[in-house]
Please model this.
Amino acid sequence: MINIRNHGEIEIIRTNALMVTATLTEVAKFLKPGITTASINKMADEFIHDNGGKPSFKGYHGFPYALCISVNEVVVHGFPSEYILKDGDIVSVDCGFYRDGYHGDHAYTFAIGDVKQETLKLLRVTKESLFLGIAQAAANNRVGDISYAIENYANRIHGYGVVRELVGHGVGRELHEEPQVPNFGFRGSGKRLQAGTVIAIEPMVNLGTKDVYTLEDGWTVVTADGKPSAHFEHTVVVRKGKGEALSSFTPIEAAEQVNGELNSSYYAQPALV
Ligand code: MG
Ligand code: MG
Model:
């Protein structure tokens, strides 16, 4: 069953999604070469609790941490660890915030210190593919319209590998609800979208092959060729005409550093949505 949320429910989800934004903004300020990924998790876990929420991921099917922290070739579901971030790394941080009976879920990939231009381009294109997907989250469109928009831009236009094993999803009372929202597919295929359905759209895009595998810990998903992978996610409500992101990159982008400078890309790029 695909849920349709009323105005009050959507506003609770928006508040929680924006609490994820606030958490990721704290992460943006905290990140630098020389810190461990475990220290990021600890900071975020405390921030979420201090704001009256619970981290959605902690305990979800046994996942042990507040954040998924995925460095370089790790696609998603990485464990925070004693790994020390170094100049040139990219780090994907995925976070859920639960309060008042609903979840928000969103993710951002950060550059640490000086990152290669080809990798920065992967981050930019992945983020842009998310916005193209959001534009298709329109009432009476089908799930495949979102999927196609993402795959077409990231793969057909830019030649990147789009991960198939993991998908976006409905989000609300449960962290993962129907429908599944793949990042690949055909226009006009899949379930029809109705206004008020809330979904997480989350392209996972690889610099090289689309193929991935899971490490022996049962969680950590890595690229088959060891090349970097990017992940951007928004919680989105289906609306007439186009989707509306309930979470926001704006404060994260205002706080993040890209190659030693405050990121001004938000101001330089035309809005895709
Ligand atoms: Mg997520
Ligand atoms: Mg998600």
User: Anything to note?
Assistant: The pocket of magnesium ion (ligand 1) is lined by residues 94, 105, 107, 202, 233 (CB under 6 Å). Confidence is low (pLDDT under 50) at residues 266-273.
